[in-house]
Specification:
Length: 114
């Protein structure tokens, strides 16, 4: 068993997360699911990628994430609060999000954080 590991992998697939956990011998992967509202997601994407998208194009990107399992990861996090957490970042405040993440990381000992 590996203790005190923090590995951000950014996976959008629960099977991918479970694969990493199995090969790192982590019994209960701790997932930190970062969640925010649609407007903020779109704005962040457009800023990061330096693109302006119509709502339809952005909804297409979101549906792709959902089709490969993003909602499954969120459900897993909701169903396993003893070793998973959901952080809502609707304010787009990096400092606030880091404070929330630090509190969650302190809660877990053996972690594979996504």
């Amino acid at each position: 068993m590996i203790d005190d590991i923090y590995t951000p992998i950014g996976s959008r697939s629960l099977s991918h997360i479970k694969y990493f956990a199995k090969h790192l011998k982590i019994d209960k992967p701790s997932i930190i699911f970062l969640d925010n509202d649609y407007k903020l997601q779109k704005s962040n994407y457009e800023n990061r990628e330096r693109k302006n998208l119509t709502d339809n194009k952005f909804l297409g990107l979101i549906s792709l994430d959902k089709s490969i399992g993003l909602d499954e990861i969120k459900t897993f996090a909701l169903e396993n609060p003893d070793h998973c957490s959901i952080i809502n970042n609707n304010k787009n405040d990096s400092e606030d999000m880091l404070i929330k993440m630090n509190k969650v990381l302190q809660k877990f000992n053996s972690t594979l954080c996504i």
